[in-house]
Amino acid sequence: MVVIVLHSTEELKICRLIKELSGFCARGEVIVYKKVPLWIPVDELGEKAGANLADGEIDGYDKAQLKLLAERITNVQLLFPKQDDDEVYCPVIISYNSEDNEQKQITTKLTLLRFLQPVEKDFVSEFLSTNTGTETANLFPMQIKIFRLGNAIKTERNSFELTDFIWRKQNPSLLHYN
Question: By the 8 A CB rule, do 39 and 5 touch?
């Protein structure tokens, strides 16, 4: 599985949000647990950006393929958190250049929390409405400026390892700072 791992600066901001959200949900007597590891799956990007795995490759992309894929990514943006029945997540829009150098986008998600049981109450909307104007509410939309792109390999039942990763720093002239 190919994933984007946030730089520690952005990851720390997201971890603070997770802590605040989980505390807010706990007041409603809902049991939540943090989703780890904190990464964005982007297998679909590899297929659409023309960096497909050859038949028989099970360990993911090699460094050259990862570098090609990373160079095609032009923007990674986290949007305001959302909630469905069993999880809280941030929609992620990834813009990239296709093989034809055409600008395209995919949407994926960064899962933050999971509910032990399905819930109907919208904790995220309530949380955001009570925290307007705070640092947390002003996080989004968040431009991801620096990230790692790598292969997440399952090593044991509940363990993953990030292999053959490369760092990617977005072009500062193309970024809009929050």
Answer: yes
Q: Computed over its alpha carbons, how large is the radius of gyration of the chain? A: 17
Contact present, 93 and 57 (Cβ < 8 Å):
no
Residue partners of 53: CB distance under 8 A and separation at least 6: 46, 60, 61, 65
* Cβ atoms of residues 46 and 60 within 8 Å: no
Model confidence, pTM:
0.83
- pLDDT tens for 34-75 read 877 888 988 777 665 544 444 434 457 888 888 888 898 999
Beta strand 103-115 with 146-156 is unpaired
Residue 28's φ and ψ, nearest 5 degrees, are -90, 15
